[in-house]
Design goal:
The structure is a homodimer.
Chain A (H helix, E strand, L loop, with lengths): L2 H8 L3 H9 L6 E2 L5 E2 L2 H16 L7 H8 L9 H39 L5
Antiparallel strand pairs in A: 1-2
The structure holds a DNA duplex (30 and 30 nucleotides).
DNA sequence: ACTGGACTTGACGTCGGCGTCAAGTCGGAG
DNA sequence: CTCCGACTTGACGCCGACGTCAAGTCCAGT
């Protein structure tokens, strides 16, 4: 299949696919006239990239999963590097969650205090 | 005081101060030779901007607080627009937290499954 | 007089993940 | 032959909050 079909089946755009190729994430062989030609494995790689990206992985962080699949593993997270990437992302998410929760609490406290000052007689 | 001193006392850089001025957030009067001259109110405004930015407010979203202070209020969140900004930010943070928590759960689930597959005999 | 700092404006660089436009090529349908 | 749609590469735009460099001004100290 060519780039347009893969983009449609993968729920993305041709621009994104060319970008992934520029990163070396999703390469393609070329037909005689220079067009990119993808197979079902390409769709599988794209699905892996997209599902990880949707979770919040940076494209660079999807690389171990993609390479794992290209190495013939049936699952992108069957390799140690992928598991390590999971762990890093998990730690990153936890830290981000903690920061955001703290920020939310500060905002909520500020909001409550501001409302107190504006309506000192409210119940 | 001039821009260097304000930057130091406010815990930021001269570049940031000029940027805030370009946004109309933190204006300054000029001395005869064209240098920016700030007073203690300027430091107060800067403190308001920085504390909000540190919580996660975009600079544009600190504008109501700054304008509130410039209107003579002792607190930046004494005005309705500031309270509204608090509410918007709170909602935004809650949404972001929910998304991140969902993402973390997905990653954790994936990680656990991957580890299961790698060590099928582990306890 | 000279040097060193602090100041000024202007403008380009950074990071990620593409969107979007330009200009050209190619193959098939009418 | 012509036209349309899909493809190609190249390159600039975008968002936010500045960092950084360039080139010039100005003032205080020695």
């Amino acid at each position: 299949m060519r780039i347009g079909e893969l983009a449609q089946r993968g729920g993305t755009t041709t621009r994104a696919l060319r970008y992934y190729e520029s990163l070396g994430l999703l390469t393609a062989r070329r037909t005689a006239n220079g067009q990119r030609e993808y197979d079902e494995d390409g769709l599988r790689l794209l699905a892996e990239i997209r599902s990880l990206a949707d979770i919040g992985f940076a494209l660079e962080d999807t690389r171990p999963f993609v390479e794992c699949l290209r190495d013939g593993h049936t699952s992108g997270d069957a390799c140690p590097a992928s598991v390590a990437a999971y762990r890093r992302k998990l730690a990153e998410l936890d830290e981000c969650l903690a920061r955001l929760a703290a920020a939310r609490d500060r905002v909520r406290t500020q909001l409550e205090q501001a409302e107190q000052r504006r309506r000192p007689c409210a119940r």
